[in-house]
Amino acid sequence: MSKQHQNNEVKAKKFLGQHFLEDETIAEKIANSLSLKNYKNLLEIGPGMGVLTKYLLKKPVTTYVIEIDRESVAYLKNNYLNLAPRILEKDFLKYNLKDTFKEDAFAIIGNFPYNISTQIVFKTLEWRHQIPEFSGMFQKEVAQRICSKEGSKVYGILSVLTQAFYEAEYLFTVPPTVFNPPPKVESGVLRLVRKENDRLPCDEKLFFRVVKTAFQQRRKTLRNSLKIFNLSVNLKANVIFEKRPEQLSVSQFIKLTSLIENDAVNE
Question: Which of 73, 187, 238, 266 is the most buried (most CB within 10 A)?
Answer without folding.
Answer: 187
